[in-house]
Amino acid sequence: MKKKNTLFTSMFLVPALALAACNGDGEAPEVDEGDIPDAGDEGAADDDAGDDEVDEGTSASLQMGTGSTGGTYYALGQEMANVMNEHVDYDGFSVDAVATDASVENIARVSEQDLELGMTVHIPAIDSLVGEGDFQGQEMENFGFMGYIYPETNQIAVLADSDIDSIEDLEGRSVNIGPPNSASQGAARLILESYGLEDGDYEAFEEGFGDGASMMQDGNVDATFGLLGLPATNLEELAAQQDIELLSIDEEQLDEIEANSQYERITIEEDSYDFLEEDVEGIAAYAVLIGSTEDIDEELGYEIVKGMYENSEEVSHNQGEHMTMENIMLGSEDLPLHPGAEQYFEENDLLDQVDDDEDEDEDEDE
């Protein structure tokens, strides 16, 4: 059941300076490659973190998976960790934000008890529960939803003086589709496939959006995809150096994507960027926080949600403005709730937000 598209539209109308989503900075702890579907090889070992045990099954020293170098997930995750460290009322608690390949890796590693917290787009999280999408044949569990973070929209940049006027023109071109195991790459492939473009129909590069933008500026790729905050700083910086455009998704392909995925259409308003001359049609999703149900017990889960969301105004990153009590349940539909988060949501009458959204959707269907 789909949520109302107005949720996305209203949130994207608020100006917010953001870096490219699913790109981060720092080092990710080492994990057995067999534990991660199609695991990438980025990251280095961090063997000492997360070893201090307070109670059986609950670590006081946690790690939160973010994204790859230079983008929203890592930058925002660092600030979220700072807020948690300041306000989570639990003996011996600490959390470090670590760089990963973002959504898919974070889900897998939280499920496999290699990370305790993770940032992810809600759609691969849903896929992981039933072994679909990037998790084909590998069902993930042992994690629960802990709160909404911010809205993400797919953006496809090309140079304005190129002869690329539409997504179908990317056939035979060099295209940066985003890092392995990222929701950015999953969304890019979904869009390209809606135009009949499969692997081999274009030369694929698998870099973060910031690196992809630099490669496009240097003439090494023709287009770069990213599931980003809005507006994206990397795009604004690129536009200051080169004349660029964003490609729109056509109505037919939007209909197909909405019918076959949980992405929703979103209009990127002309005034979102100085370089835009008209509205651009794209697809959008929710970034959410998940936590281990094995390594984070109900008491700690409750305190994490309470400490983070009751003090979210201390996050200076502009995407932090979305982390409000009014938005906290966005992206939770079809995901299990972490028991501690569920207790907090119930005590604060927040579970009604999901019920209200479902009732509105049913009224629309009628």
From TrEMBL:
Query: Can you tell which superkingdom this protein's organism belongs to?
Result: Bacteria
Q: Does Thylakoid count among this protein's keywords? A: no
Per UniProt, the keywords (alphabetical) are:
Signal
Which first-to-last residue range defines the signal peptide?
1-20
Q: Which Pfam families has this protein been placed in?
A: NMT1_3
Q: Where is this region: Disordered?
A: 25-65, 333-366
SUPFAM superfamilies in the record: Periplasmic binding protein-like II
Comp. bias (Acidic residues) = 27-56, 344-366
Q: Which PROSITE patterns match?
A: PROKAR_LIPOPROTEIN
InterPro entries noted in UniProt: TRAP_TAXI
Q: What is this protein called?
A: TRAP transporter solute receptor, TAXI family
Organism of origin is Geomicrobium halophilum
